[in-house]
């Protein structure tokens, strides 16, 4: 998008980055539909520097692993909440009924999205209604999430440390349960001031649960259009170099709503039904990583951006506006 073709001599100039010189992008399990386009965008990112970057990431099975070393399955953010022991007896039963009714609709390959949206709104609304009228102590959620703080992709800490050092805002977008997401990220020490979680958070009224806070984030509005006009959008919308990371096809659209002149690099983690899904993932994402349980690719991209930045600002001043402290508290 917008990137002009460079001729061979321009590519030979000092500092131009070539895909063949980035080892993680040359691994067998790293696939690209259009490696020239990826190369162009990476060079835009490196030239633009950290002050033009933002990261938008899904949470479940993108920040957490799709497959753990010990084979223990990592529950989703809703799954973590649903397994809390103090929830009323009928809660789990009713929430499972909803899952069995609506999940087949969510993954139905024949129903058009326009038709699915209403069902998904119904599902999230009814889940919220079930989570109403009883006490729930959030420390129970912390106890549950602490069991899974080691289930983040390898290199997640290093990635988040680099993003903080470079003052790059990170938006974690989840149509799951925000309280589980934040709790797990806090337990794993990656809930830093440059990180904002946009998701569904439990609401309390008179000490009892009262469903989810507005706005509802479901799988079909999980993109930057729900942020438009809000404080967070104002803080990041000038950052037009965007890395998007996700494990579901729909995650590829999370940056929808940013200005069309933006350069967006989409990284997709593919694990289930690799052969059947490959074509769709290759069309939706710029880089498809097959059964990769690490953050090596985004780390390598940041290292390139960082290296050029250090050359330009050897004394540590990065010229970045100090917006990070406001990010977490920014309203939508
Ligand atoms: C309302 N609701 C939605 N989901 C699932 O939560 C997922 C959240 O969507 P997502 O944020 O794209 O998460 P992902 O990273 O796991 O893909 C959806 O794909 C739904 O299948 C839900 N899952 C459970 N267990 N319980 C629920 O009430 C519920
Ligand atoms: Mg996911």
UniProtKB/TrEMBL annotation:
E.C. number(s) listed in UniProt: 3.1.3.5
Biased composition (Polar residues): 317-332
Record Pfam families: UMPH-1 (PF05822)
Record's catalysed reaction(s): a ribonucleoside 5'-phosphate + H2O = a ribonucleoside + phosphate
Domain of life: Eukaryota
PANTHER family in UniProt: 5'-NUCLEOTIDASE, 7-METHYLGUANOSINE PHOSPHATE-SPECIFIC 5'-NUCLEOTIDASE
4Fe-4S listed as a keyword: no
Annotated stretches, region: Disordered: 313-332
One GO term (biological process): nucleotide metabolic process
Compartments (UniProt record): Cytoplasm
Protein name per its UniProtKB record: 5'-nucleotidase
A single cellular component GO annotation: cytoplasm
Example GO molecular function: magnesium ion binding
Listed InterPro entries: HAD-like_sf, HAD_sf, Pyrimidine_nucleotidase_eu
Source species of the chain: Drosophila hydei
Record family assignment: Belongs to the pyrimidine 5'-nucleotidase family.
Keywords: Cytoplasm, Hydrolase, Magnesium, Metal-binding, Nucleotide metabolism, Nucleotide-binding
Record flagged with keyword Hydrolase: yes
Gene3D superfamilies named among the record's database cross-references: HAD superfamily/HAD-like (3.40.50.1000), Pyrimidine 5'-nucleotidase (UMPH-1), N-terminal domain (1.10.150.340)
SUPFAM superfamilies per UniProt: HAD-like
Main subcellular location: cytoplasm
Gene that encodes it: LOC111599742
């Amino acid at each position: 998008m917008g990137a002009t073709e460079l001729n061979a001599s321009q590519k030979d100039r000092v500092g131009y980055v070539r895909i063949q010189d980035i080892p993680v992008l040359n691994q067998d399990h790293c696939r690209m539909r259009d490696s020239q386009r990826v190369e162009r965008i990476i060079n835009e990112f490196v030239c633009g520097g950290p002050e033009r970057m933002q990261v938008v990431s899904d949470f479940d099975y993108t920040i957490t692993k799709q497959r753990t070393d010990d084979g223990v399955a990592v529950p989703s953010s809703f799954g973590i909440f649903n397994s809390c022991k103090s929830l009323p007896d009928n809660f789990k039963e009713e929430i499972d009924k909803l899952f069995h009714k609506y999940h087949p609709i969510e993954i139905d390959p024949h129903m058009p999205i326009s038709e699915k949206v209403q069902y998904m709104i119904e599902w999230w609304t009814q889940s919220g209604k079930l989570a109403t009228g009883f006490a729930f102590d959030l420390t129970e959620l912390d106890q549950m999430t602490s069991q899974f703080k080691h289930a983040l992709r390898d290199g997640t800490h290093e990635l988040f440390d680099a993003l903080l050092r470079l003052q790059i805002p990170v938006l974690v977008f989840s149509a799951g349960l925000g309280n589980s997401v934040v709790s797990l990220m806090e337990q794993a020490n990656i809930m830093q001031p440059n990180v904002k979680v946009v998701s569904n958070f439990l609401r309390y009224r008179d000490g009892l649960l009262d469903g989810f806070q507005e706005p509802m984030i479901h799988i079909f509005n999980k993109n930057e259009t729900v942020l438009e006009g809000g404080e967070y959008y104002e803080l990041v919308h000038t950052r037009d170099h965007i890395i998007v990371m996700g494990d579901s096809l729909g995650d590829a659209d999370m940056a929808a709503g940013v200005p069309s002149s933006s350069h967006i690099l989409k990284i997709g983690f593919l694990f289930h039904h690799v052969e059947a899904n490959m074509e769709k993932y290759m069309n939706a994402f710029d880089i498809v990583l097959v059964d990769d349980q690490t953050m090596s690719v985004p780390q390598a991209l940041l290292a390139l951006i960082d290296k050029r930045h250090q050359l330009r600002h050897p004394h540590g001043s990065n010229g970045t506006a100090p917006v990070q402290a406001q990010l977490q508290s920014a309203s939508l």
